[in-house]
Give the backbone structure.
Amino acid sequence: MARPKKQRARATRHHARASRLSIAQAKELRTGKSKGGAPVFADETEMKKSLRQALVKAPYNVHDYYRPDGCAQQIARHAMFENCTLVVIVLNCLWMAIDTDNNPAAVLIDAPPVFQVAEHLFCTYFFIEITIRFLAFEYKCDCFRDFWFVFDFCLSLYMIAETWILSIVLVVADLRETDSLFSANVLRIIRMVKILRLTRMAKLLRSIPELGIVAKAIGAAGRSLLVIAAFCVMVLYVFALLMKQITDMVQEPPADSALTADFATVATSMNTLLLKSMFAESASFVYSLAAWHPVFWPFVVLFILITSVTMMYMLIGVMVNVVNSVAASEREGSTVSLIAQSLRQVMSKLGMDPDGPLSKQTVTDLLLDAEVAQFLYSLDVDSIVMVEMLDTFYEDIMEKEGRQMNFEDLVDGLLNLRGTNPATVQDVKGSIRILKTSFTKELSDLRKSLLGEINTLKIDLRDGGDLESSGSEHDAS
């Protein structure tokens, strides 16, 4: 009987080993990732981490690529220039509404004079603005590496082509809107293309951070929304099939003859369920179906509960979670950018190189600087604790990556020492490690001190014994 027990115990241990998660699987489970790719829902920790890594580096500023002297760069750097441009962009977008409501002409040369004057003024300003920014660059090829310059350049090029080039071509060719060349489709395309000017309002995202947070939240929630939308389509399809089959089985004609056409095919059934149930007040719709036959009522009510109630609130929850995650990551990003820029400025004043490896003495001198200490204190970071933990930081970096501390490691360490950070298991392990290191160091120092005292005592005792023996010999003689 003992042999089967051993075999069962061995099999149990084998099953336990096989059922354990590997370290990689545990990390995937903790972060919400799978082998399929990125997590479905936005992860606030990952967003903060990626944003911190991006912002700890020297921030991009297009002014760094401008000429050091000259009239164009001086105008382009001025805040008033950018503010005036934003005002003109807003006015241009508002003017588009006035133009759409009151300008019947599709081409500019046939428009009333007030609309022609306004369009030429807007085109002139944007042409001057993009020209000043182009002349401000020290190396002209750098302008095409700046996203906002390329964006504005394309829009300005389109506006010049529509306002000036097209008008000149039409005047030279002596063409008017009433000519046979301008068919209805051509005029419709010309009117629709004008909507492209509204893309200039994207520049407002740079000036109003809240708009940028909302836009980033929508982008971050894209995958989650697509998953939920796909599930909604599946629900629509299943219930459309069900409703179509029920309508085929029910022999009684409905009181509302339109219901028969609403569920004639699976596609029309999906359309009916989507428009009349999911996106509208559904009471009359349910009453009509229930009046036709009571068998419809439970299925329609169940569909409304799944889609209009459950799915809609789920979408709201996802959006709230994503907006909260994006807002938290943006706050983290502003803090990281502030710390990185301030430390770089102080290091430049002290003659330190932020792009190279940082020695312990360099970091200590930096953190004990009065300006840096006061700045870090305002962010709830204790620079003294950072100085005391430098040995631990250097040991961790050397063990994990085999190199010295750099500027990114310094900023990351300061951010991790904020008093507002929630305590984690890693923090507890780090505290225990620091206590063990401090205790070991104190014990070693105490041991050295005791050994020194013992050696001193031995020497004193030896010297005392030698003096006593020499004194006794002298007395004997």
Remarks:
- Residues 11-36 have pLDDT under 50 and may be disordered.
- The two ends are 92 Å apart (CA to CA).
- Residues 353-422 form one domain.
- The chain has four domains: 38-55+208-349, 68-207, 353-422, 437-477.
